[in-house]
Design a protein that fits this description.
4-stranded antiparallel beta sheet, about 575 residues, RNA-binding
RNA sequence: CCCCUCGUAGCUUAAUGGAUAAAGCAGGACUCUUCUAAGGUCUUGAUGGGGGUUCGAUUCCCUCCGAGGGGACCA
């Protein structure tokens, strides 16, 4: 907010000159810092010192600068530092307090639609920790775009078609039975899947059996169709349960099978554009700078990308989105490069297609967790474990809670820990799954933020009725620090949409909590002789609580008045 | 063999080309007659190796080493 103002303002003085406005980590150096002196020195053949001094003089003479910044200095080796004035911070705090319930929202997305694809669950396989990343990153980004005024379509593109279902049906016919399936649907399907791949090593004939079943399925064979529907139903029920626990919602749950019917016309559409080629009996598209992509197998069956093209075409025609975000693992980078390249070759444009990639979740040994070998950590197990631990901690810390309240808090804390642990990290890197870090509720963790929220809420609850405070009474360093931090919230939200990641917002909320806790420890708010000062401080912490709560909500994490 | 990620403290991670590389965990020392100690304060400790571009490189380029992912009938 202030940064942008500063940038625009300076641009008036120094047009066509590149510079950065920084927010230095240490307040000894200033609240904002610009590196213009270097650039000008180089441009004019002078020294940075000379230029820096000139800039300072210029800024000091300008009322708009001097109103905002109490102090403007030039420091070697070439930075002009600006300190926000106490008065300006106090004025801003009043403004933020007034609009606290909508603070950070904007209209930059008004009239625009963004489709966000996340979740990416595969029928007949249990959700594992990898799905968690897609789900919570996607959900968080959806929340961000909503705050920025976009119309958001939350889309769970499920993997419910393709070769693996042929395999599954074949396996079921060989070794499965309905009784067992009913009792433990997902586990049974997974066992069949794993067994199929195990036995395939010694019995390659299985592969053709799987292909046959897929072919029958695609041709509408009644028995296979019924089995597929059953597998799908059981799986979706299971996913719903998990999404509910994670507080994740979708507008659309439509996967690959939803495009099976339009494959023919999609291929025809591609053919009309004249980019389809025959190669070794299959239909392919040759791409520039990328390996060719297979559109139709030699036996005529469709492939993953074929269905993705069909879906993309539909999405664009139906929603005319400004952007489509695919929140899908790194491993599929090539697939999306190919998809986007095909899309351009088909003559589409005007929509930003973005593959929001994220790294894998590795095992504690740093190795891949393969579902095929049955090594993946099932998400349900993880949720149960973390909520159970949260329950233990909650009851230990706060024994007076009722059972019902303790349960509710345990869920919020456990799920909060789980989500925050992932979101605080940069999405692109692989993360090593670390039970002890995941289950640690201290330090930079979800529960720490929730704890801060609860502490502040507790004061507000005890304070009872009060009048609006006068922020001019907030002169202590700890108070100023918190107030300044509040001003960074809108920037932090906007950056999430710029970088397609939420770790910046997570860090911001952690720092806000940090500042708030320092303030909390530095003074005793209630019980002050000065009623006016109590009111001013309550106003400050109320703003922090609201901003913190809203920030957590973007991350999909609940905040409770007591934990 | 080719392409893409990545390599930061004992461990897990931060850092739009900026200042003295930031945290958490683990280790050490303090801190509850006071609004929630899941807290606060202090402390030990790091950019894989070698070049280059730049006033300035964790960040950009080259190279070497190491890890992971991907590379036509899987998704």
């Amino acid at each position: 907010m202030i940064k942008r103002w500063l940038k625009n303002k300076i641009q008036e003085y120094y047009q066509d000159t590149a510079f950065d406005v920084l927010t230095p980590p240490d307040d000894k150096m200033g609240d904002y810092s610009i590196n213009l002196a270097f650039v000008l020195a180089k441009k004019n053949g002078t020294s940075p010192i000379e230029e820096g001094q000139k800039i300072v003089e210029k800024f000091k003479a300008d009322r708009e600068f001097s109103d905002r910044f109490g102090e403007i200095n030039f420091v070697n080796p070439g930075f002009v530092n600006l300190f926000l004035s106490e008065k300006f911070i106090q004025e801003q705090l009043t403004k933020v307090y007034k609009k606290r319930d909508s603070y950070g929202t904007s209209k930059i997305g008004e009239g625009k639609t963004v489709i966000i694809e996340y979740g990416g669950t595969n029928i007949a396989k249990p959700m594992h920790v990898g799905h968690l990343r897609s789900t919570i990153i996607g959900d968080g980004l959806a929340n961000v775009y909503e705050m920025l005024g976009y119309k958001v379509v939350r889309w769970n593109y499920i993997g419910d078609w393709g070769t693996q279902f042929g395999n599954l049906i074949a396996a079921y016919k060989l070794w499965g039975n309905e009784k067992e399936l009913k009792k433990k649907p997902i586990q049974t399907m997974l066992n069949l899947y794993v067994r199929f791949h195990d036995e395939l090593k010694n019995n390659p004939d299985l592969r053709s059996r799987g292909r046959e079943e897929l072919k029958k399925l695609e041709e509408g064979d009644a028995e296979d169709r019924k089995l597929w529907e059953m597998f799908r139903e059981y799986s979706l029920d299971e996913f719903d349960k998990i999404f509910q626990q994670l507080d994740i919602k979708f507008d659309i749950t439509k996967g690959e099978s939803g495009y099976e019917m339009v494959i023919g016309e999609t291929v025809e559409f591609i053919e009309q554009k004249g980019i389809l080629k025959k190669s070794e009996g299959a239909d392919i598209i040759e791409l520039e700078g990328l390996p060719p992509t297979l559109i139709r197998k030699s036996d005529g069956a469709s492939l993953y990308i074929t269905r993705d093209i069909a879906s993309l075409k539909e999405r664009i025609e139906e929603y005319k989105p400004e952007k489509i975000l695919y929140v899908v693992a790194n491993q599929q980078a090539l697939h999306f490069e190919q998809l986007f390249a095909v899309w351009r070759m088909l003559g589409f444009s005007g929509t930003d297609l973005i593959h929001v990639k994220f790294g894998m979740v590795l095992g504690e040994d740093g190795k891949k967790l393969a579902t095929r070998e049955g090594k993946g950590i099932p998400l349900q197990e993880l949720i149960d474990k973390i909520v159970a631990l949260a329950g233990k901690v909650v009851r230990e810390k706060n024994p007076k809670l009722s059972e019902k309240e303790a349960d509710e808090i345990s869920k919020a804390v456990g799920i909060g820990a789980l989500k925050y642990n992932d979101l605080k990290q940069h999405p692109r890197t692989d993360i090593a799954f670390d039970w002890s870090a995941m289950l640690d509720f201290s330090g930079n963790s979800g529960p720490y933020l929730q704890y801060t929220y609860a502490r502040l809420s507790s004061i507000l609850a005890k304070a009872g009725n009060r009048k609006a405070g006068n922020p001019a009474l907030l002169v202590e360093a700890e108070e100023q620090r918190v107030a300044k931090r509040l001003l960074e919230f809108p920037d932090s939200v906007e950056k999430c949409s710029e970088f397609y990641s939420l770790n910046g917002l997570a860090l911001y909320l952690y720092e806000l909590s940090n500042d708030a806790n320092r303030f909390y420890e530095s003074v005793r708010i209630l019980g002050d002789m000065n009623i006016e000062r109590i009111n001013a401080r309550l106003m400050l912490i109320e703003t922090v609580a609201v901003v913190l709560g809203r920030g957590l909500k973007i991350l999909g994490i609940g905040s409770l008045p007591r934990i």
